[in-house]
Design a protein that fits this description.
- The longest helix has 39 residues, at 12-50.
- Helix 1 runs antiparallel to helix 6 (164-171).
- The strands form 4 sheets. Strands 1-11-6-9-10 form a 5-stranded mixed sheet. It has a two-stranded antiparallel ribbon with strand order 2-5.
- It has helices spanning 12-50, 121-124, 127-132, 135-139, 145-158, 164-171, 174-179, 254-267, 286-294; strands at 4-7, 70-71, 82-94, 97-109, 116-117, 192-203, 210-211, 217-218, 223-234, 242-249, 277-280.
- The protein has 3 domains: 12-128, no CATH class; 135-172, no CATH class; 180-308, Nucleotidyltransferase, domain 5, CATH 3.30.420.
- The chain is of the alpha+beta class.
- It is 34% helix and 24% strand.
- The chain contains 9 helices and 11 strands.
- It starts with a strand and ends in an 18-residue tail after the last helix.
- The chain binds zinc ion (ZN).
- Zinc ion is lined by residues 71, 73-74, 76, 109, 111-112, 114.
């Protein structure tokens, strides 16, 4: 088994398609992650309001536990009489698009067996947060800095309601959850992979107003340069190449490439699984990283594709 290297660079329209495809994948992963986090937040809010975990029987006591949620039939607002009663589904608009099939917890009043009206703070009072979750947050990633900024700002406006701290912690999980997509094993290993770095400028502050240290609103015009490290896969029996994996990075040094290549190797992209050749741009730290990660498997330079079969 061996991997051969040849030179090539993604151009023009191919690069644009690549960025669009990455953006779509990113958005889908972000929506899924935001949905999971939001549902966890809703369950947390229920637990805080009822002061009992799921599965814990309710306490009947002489001391009513009055909350601002109310039975829509008898007007009872004593949480000791409320029990969890499944979920209903709705959708929610975010800066990334709609989260479909969001499961919203329901409560039942045990005095009269009607529904309790639950105004979830995270949905009603702070719906702005979900609209602020702009794609920039993920594009700027590497660190979940922007996400933390939004969460911080959010915390500043909401004060310290019980449970909000937990909710904030959960929100910080959106990015790691979205990144999980990059950890699944790759079974369908391509014959050839073309590596390239696509540089782009993210316009930060176009839709999102940022706040400086004195809490003045600032509309930043400055763009941030990032690079998408892309692994584009070619299969001998397929007409079109597909993106195997990608990573947003701050540069194209060998460290960035090495991290990306190691992840690919861990996910199963190896010579023994069918990888035969690597196409890459001449410069940058990619060559060095390829040597470090795939070094021992590169023993000959035979070309398995005829000229023209692999677009450059
Ligand atoms: Zn009732």
């Amino acid at each position: 088994m061996s991997i051969s290297f040849s030179q090539g660079k993604l151009r023009g329209e191919q690069r644009r398609n690549m960025v669009e495809a990455v953006q779509k994948q990113m958005q889908a992963a972000a929506i899924r992650a935001a949905g999971e986090v939001l549902m966890a937040c809703l369950d947390t809010e229920v637990t805080v309001k009822l002061a009992r975990e799921k599965g814990t029987p309710r306490q009947i006591s002489d001391q009513p536990r009055e909350i601002h949620w109310q039975c829509k039939n008898c007007g009872c607002n004593d949480a000791n009489y409320f029990t969890r009663d499944g979920h209903y589904r709705r959708e929610l608009k975010t800066g990334w698009g709609k989260i479909q099939k969001l499961q919203i917890p329901m409560l039942e009043c045990q005095k009269c067996h009607h529904d309790v009206i639950c105004d979830f703070e995270i949905l009603e009072k702070h719906d702005r947060f979900w609209l602020d979750l702009d794609q920039d947050v993920l594009w700027s990633s590497g660190s979940s800095q922007s996400l933390r900024e939004i969460a911080e700002r959010w915390r500043a406006t909401t004060g310290n309601t019980v449970g909000l701290r937990t909710i904030n912690e959960r929100i910080s999980q959106i990015e790691p959850l979205a990144q999980k997509y990059h950890e699944q094993p790759i079974d369908d290993v391509p014959d050839v992979i073309q590596f390239d770095g696509i540089w782009m400028t993210i316009q930060e502050g176009n839709q999102t107003v940022r706040y400086d240290k004195r809490n003045r609103a600032r509309h930043e015009k400055k763009g941030k340069r990032v690079v998408i490290l892309v692994a584009l896969g070619f299969w001998q029996d397929r007409e079109k190449p597909e993106i195997v994996d990608w990573q947003i990075a701050s540069g194209e040094g060998h460290r960035e490439w090495e991290g990306f290549l190691n992840r690919l190797k861990t996910r199963g992209v190896r010579a023994e699984k069918g990888l035969q050749a690597v196409i890459r741009d001449g410069g940058g730290g990619l060559g060095q990283a390829l040597g470090l990660v795939y070094g021992s498997t590169v023993v000959d330079q035979r070309c398995i594709f005829h000229e023209g079969q692999v677009p450059n």
